[in-house]
């Protein structure tokens, strides 16, 4: 008659042959779980390796590996000529026995919570999946342009700095870090600022920066003004904070400031969110005249300006217009940006520039969200800034992206001349494509996907007055750009049944 332990192991252990995890690890983890739950008690003798291999229908070497793995973690004691016995590494661990269900039920975590919680429609994911060969985005860099080996050396060198240990061991930092100093120097040199470390904090991402700002600035039902066609990601953050979004028309000079004057009264607006360098999604630049008008209106009406300069780095003609924040003498502007867009995404860092008292409060929120930060990343970025490597990579990649922008325009003219209109953006990694005659963009996306080109919903803009696509070209090389635009033309013909 089989012993209870043999019967339990036979019932307990099952293998997932599709898993990349080795069989001996799968078995060991399930035995550990059984010990933790009290199904296998301390001192229980486990079957010998020959018997275990027969029970589980595995090679004896696999059975030996299972017990070796358990022994290495302190869950069993292998006694020569006596057998393998269950141990409990931590006697304080509470044994949990589940009554009324089979042993294997413990390995299927529940899909639905047994308690109520607050769900959020605003935070529903907008990401889609596709197996298409070509996936168009809203303007992301090309990871293939990044010098992999160089990044490895930079990161390894940063990890070896002895100063990092001291930074990790410090409970608080009274003086400005080297990275903060370098970041301020970089922003002062490239954006016309006159800031110190007291005017800025760095975050994990531009989205984290905006989240912190929205938590500090917005209370439920506060009015936030955004462009008529605006950034879906920032809108989600504002709505989650409880804001009431109001849209402002966009024309060839950017946000219509006169519309704000005629449709809103003083103290009725909490803040205005703007992408002055290149409006998202239309890529229109806010004119110098309107920047000054917006700054003056903010002072007169008492609202804050959130200036999101997400793609300031990629400028192809002349110099980018300086930020609104560089002309702000009254503390009305909160400036958001991103450093390192010519680096791998994991090395990007967001930052906030604002008056000192606002930054002090923002630091309190940052402590809750990300107390430790990424000291290795900061060390590496400090060195890349001081050595001029950030600037060199930016210039090098900008030349490549400019060629891709021009190439995109060339093939659009070749395949969509008279069908689509667009204006060459002065920078950035996307072009705003407007159809002369409206079509169903959803149908276009469906036909394009059949041709291995995926157009996610977030880049499609269609209503009564708009039929447009925010076409990101930065991640495609010149050959891929032609293939994609040619396939889009084929999809367009299928939509029109040509």
From TrEMBL:
Q: Which UniProt keywords apply?
A: Aminotransferase, DNA-binding, Pyridoxal phosphate, Transcription, Transcription regulation, Transferase
**Source taxon at top rank:** Bacteria
Show which residues constitute the signal peptide: none
CDD domains from the xrefs?
AAT_like, WHTH_GntR
What SUPFAM superfamilies is this protein classified in? PLP-dependent transferases, Winged helix' DNA-binding domain
A UniProt-annotated Pfam family:
Aminotran_1_2
Q: Which GO terms describe its molecular function?
A: transaminase activity
Q: Say if the entry is tagged with keyword Ribosomal protein.
A: no
HTH gntR-type domain residues are: 21-89
Q: Which family does it belong to?
A: In the C-terminal section; belongs to the class-I pyridoxal-phosphate-dependent aminotransferase family.
Protein name, as recorded: PLP-dependent aminotransferase family protein
Species source reads Winogradskyella litorisediminis
């Amino acid at each position: 008659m089989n012993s209870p332990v043999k019967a339990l192991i036979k019932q307990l252990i099952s293998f997932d042959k599709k898993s990349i995890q080795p069989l001996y690890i799968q078995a060991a983890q399930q035995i550990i779980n059984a010990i933790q739950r009290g199904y296998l008690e301390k001192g229980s003798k486990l079957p010998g390796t020959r018997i275990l291999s027969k029970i589980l229908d595995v090679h004896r070497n696999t059975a030996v590996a299972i017990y070796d793995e358990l022994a290495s973690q302190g869950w069993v004691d292998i006694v020569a000529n006596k057998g393998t016995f269950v141990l409990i590494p931590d006697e304080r661990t509470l044994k949990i026995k589940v009554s009324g269900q089979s042993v294997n039920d413990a390995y299927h975590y529940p899909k639905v919570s047994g308690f109520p919680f607050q769900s959020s429609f605003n935070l529903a994911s907008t990401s889609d999946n596709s197996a298409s060969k070509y996936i168009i985005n809203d303007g992301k860099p090309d990871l293939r342009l990044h010098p992999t080996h160089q990044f490895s050396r930079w990161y390894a060198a940063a990890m070896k700095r002895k100063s990092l240990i001291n930074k990790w061991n410090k409970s608080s930092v009274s003086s400005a870090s080297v990275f903060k100093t370098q970041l301020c120097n970089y922003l002062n040199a490239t954006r016309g600022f006159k800031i110190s470390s007291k005017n800025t904090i760095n975050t994990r991402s531009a989205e984290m920066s905006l989240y912190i700002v929205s938590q500090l600035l917005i209370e439920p039902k506060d009015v936030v003004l955004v462009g008529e066609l605006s950034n879906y990601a920032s809108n989600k953050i504002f709505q989650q904070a409880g804001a009431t979004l109001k849209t402002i028309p966009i024309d060839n000079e950017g946000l219509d400031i006169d519309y704000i004057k005629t449709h809103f009264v003083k103290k009725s607006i909490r803040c205005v969110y703007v992408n002055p360098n290149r409006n998202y999604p239309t890529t229109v630049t806010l004119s110098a005249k309107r920047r000054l008008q917006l700054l003056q209106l903010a002072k007169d009406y008492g609202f804050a300006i959130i200036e999101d300069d997400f793609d300031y780095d990629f400028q192809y003609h002349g110099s980018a217009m300086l930020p609104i924040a560089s002309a702000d003498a009254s503390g009305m502007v909160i400036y958001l940006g991103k450093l390192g867009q010519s680096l791998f995404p994991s090395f990007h860092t967001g930052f906030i520039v604002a008056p000192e008292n606002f930054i002090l409060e923002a630091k309190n929120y940052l402590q809750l969200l990300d107390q430790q930060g990424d000291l290795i990343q900061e060390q590496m970025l400090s060195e890349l800034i001081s050595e001029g490597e950030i600037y060199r990579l930016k210039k090098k990649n900008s030349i490549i992206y400019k060629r891709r922008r021009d190439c995109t325009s060339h093939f659009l003219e070749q395949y969509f001349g008279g069908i689509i209109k667009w204006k060459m953006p002065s920078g950035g990694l996307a072009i705003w494509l407007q159809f002369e005659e409206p079509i169903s963009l959803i149908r276009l996306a469906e036909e394009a996907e059949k041709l291995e080109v995926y157009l996610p919903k977030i880049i499609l803009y269609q209503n009564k007055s708009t039929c447009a696509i925010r076409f990101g070209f930065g991640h495609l090389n010149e050959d891929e750009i032609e293939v994609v635009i040619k396939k889009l033309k084929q999809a367009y013909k299928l939509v029109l049944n040509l």
